[in-house]
Amino acid sequence: MLAFYADDPRSLAVLVALTGVPGILAGLIKYRLLVILIPFTILGTFTNAMLLYYLGVVEDPGRVVASLGPLRVPEFAVETTALIGARIVSFAGAGLLLASFVTPRDAIKSLSDELGLPKGASFSLSFALRLLPLLKSDMEDILLVRRLRGHRRIPLTPGDYKSIITPLLAVSLERALWVAVAAELRGFALRKRGLRRPRLGLADAVLAAALAAQLLAVASWG
Amino acid sequence: MRGVELRLDAGDVAVAAGPSGSGKTTLILAVSGALSNLLGGRVDGGVRLSGVDPLSPEGFKEVPRVLGVVLQDPDKQIAMPTPLDEVAFTLENLGYPSGEAEERALEALERFGLAGKVLDPVEALSGGEKRRLTLAAASVVEPSVVMMDEPTASLDPWSVGDVRSYVRESSRRGSSVLIVEHKLRYFLDVAGEVIVFSEGSLRARMSAERAARLSDELEAMGVDAGEPRLEEPRGACLEEVARAEDLVVGRGGRPLIRADSLRLCRGEVVAIVGPNGSGKTTLLKTLAGGLKPLSGELRVAGRAFYVPQTPDYTFLYPTVAEDLEDASRRGGGDPWRLLKRPEWLERVSGLHGSRLSLGQRRYTSIAIALSYSPSALLLDEPSAGLDLRLYSTLEQALRSASRAAAVVVATHDVRLVAGVADRVYVVRGGRLYEVDKGEAVEVMESAWRV
């Protein structure tokens, strides 16, 4: 949320340093494939910015700061990519931190029992964590089939991404439906929240301090 | 489905069989209350599960206390990341305190041979272990009714033996067990009754003993009830397509299979058999060039095409028509050169591949692969979940495809090995051996009967 709100380079730098980088480093251990997608997303942002510049729809693109062969790169493309890239790194880092250090069962208990979140919402969040390794394995098979079907190895165009996302979504939706049915047949509707006081440890203190620093940065610089 | 009447007393075991689309899975969803309470379906009539009415919203909430459900695909059932979490999830839902839930979960996991893997990531478990985990999660509350949907799909014969043991044990404990299964013969000696469905209606019901004697009649109804028929190999090596010497394949640097020698030829169907998790999929992916061999020599002439166990991964476009068109364009071949163009294709061409039935998905994914005129067609569990009619279509498709490519199937299906395979490799103790086909069939058959 802070990453969406912040637009000052200094506050974004703090978010990247305290959430983005630790999250990406943690994600490299278990979710390398997802980490690899981050640069592609940023590259996509840069491509969009350049496209907007060349279509002439940008009112004040600023001066040209670099030339890549016949390609002129305006300030607008650099600034936009840096701003959105910092946001992407920050919230991807937050997601990867959560996925790397919290198990779904911990998450479902903490979110519902300590934070009082409705159990449906907390189950959805915790199952999302269980889905990550499955998505990784789905991705491996899809990328292999794409390659065998003569598609380029590294996805570049929207069509490339569509050919990955289409089967990924189809498989994930079917899986989500059946997991939900199975969870209900195993009594999820009966699950009760046993509200309890949160038990905080050193890791929580470090996390709280990092969050406070980021909040302060965004509050000070915007 | 219409006109279903079913009564199971304590300890009874019934098997529901019938062709795909006959309504067997719908039966489980209807009787458990999931169809009307979760999936927007309609169920008329009445159901009682140990006194609970699963069709009423209030009764449905009580269903988990009396019913244990095992679905076809463990990956579409397991919601938690470790076996301990998964089994404890059921107990915590039902109000067990965390400590007691963990204790009971550990006991259940020990009973199902997963004591050493309680905190392993689920992804690290083999298919057989995942199935045992779903059995543990379904049985941990000792339900009075157990329902299982295709519990042997994609399982090796040894794991099929585990499922049979579980059914016997549940029956002995007094649970009523309803099994929906294509491969009827796996349960004929543990079941009391066989119910056959066809096109949404009850077609026949008989004792399991009688069903064992009427396998021809049952097969005529589309039920796979007969024993596998050991066919003489029909293929012959027309051209060597792939050869491996001292090959080691694995993942993340961990070796899974060592193959001193492996040879694949156009004109032959080769089966690779072995326990779940033994590395058959990894071997196929390595042959397709998706993974690098850890060591040894591997030569593949031409293009090898791998069709995953989940055929949905093959569908990259929003519609089947676009997928086939793209495959023809990029592959340069006609998908229907070797396969019979199915009559249902026009009906489904505007849908995404995942909306097709499982048999249609498998058939279409093979057609896509054949568009690329592969020198080797590598199929992972191509017959899993197929009924008898679809299986016959697959058999013909494999034989046709082998005229133009080396066809390799990684399979647990003894029908496929006995009926179609020209040669058989088996993975045993991390090594790949070529074995006599009759010997492979005998080993597979004796494994599940234990």
Give the overall form of chain A. flat
Sheet of most strands of chain A: 2 strands, antiparallel
Q: What would CATH call the class of the largest domain in chain B?
A: Alpha Beta
How many E strands of chain A? 2
Output the radius of gyration of chain B.
22 Å
The overall strand count of chain B is: 15
Q: From the structure provided, what is the oligomeric state, counting identical versus distinct chains?
A: heterodimer
Low-confidence stretches of chain A: none
The tally of structural domains of chain A comes to 1
Fraction in helix of chain B: 25-40%
Radius of gyration of chain A: 21 Å
| Annotated CATH topology of the largest domain in chain B | Rossmann fold
| Class by alpha and beta content of chain A | mainly alpha
Report on the structure:
The complex is a heterodimer of chains A (222) and B (450). Chain A is mostly helical and 222 residues long. Chain A has one domain (2-221). Chain A contains eight helices and two strands; from the N terminus they run H-H-H-E-E-H-H-H-H-H. In chain A, strand 1 and strand 2 (71-74) form a beta hairpin. In chain A, helix 5 packs antiparallel against helix 6 (119-148) and helix 6 (119-148) packs across helix 7. The longest helix of chain A is centred in the middle third of the chain and has 30 residues, at 119-148. Chain A is flat and about 65 Å long. The mean pLDDT of chain A is 87. Chain B is an alpha/beta fold. Chain B has two domains: 13-220, P-loop containing nucleotide triphosphate hydrolases (Rossmann fold); 239-449, P-loop containing nucleotide triphosphate hydrolases (Rossmann fold). Helix content of chain B is 36%, strand content 21%. In chain B, strands 10-7-8-15-14-9-13-12-11 form a nine-stranded mixed β-sheet, sandwiched between helices. Chain B has a six-stranded mixed β-sheet with strand order 2-3-4-1-5-6, sandwiched between helices. The longest helix of chain B is centred in the middle third of the chain and has 17 residues, at 157-173. Chain B is globular. The relative contact order of chain B is 0.12.
